[in-house]
Amino acid sequence: MDNTQLTEWLQKAGKGDAAAFRKLANALGPRMHALATRLLAGNHASAEDVTQEVLIKLWQQAPNWQAGGSVAAYASRLTYTTSMDVHRRSKPTTSLDDDAMPELPVPESTTGKIYQHQQTDLILQAMKHLPERQQQAVSLTYFHEFQTRDVARAMETTEKGVEGLLARARKTMAAHLPQILKSDLN
Question: Which of 49, 64, 89 is the last residue of a domain?
Answer without folding.
Answer: 89
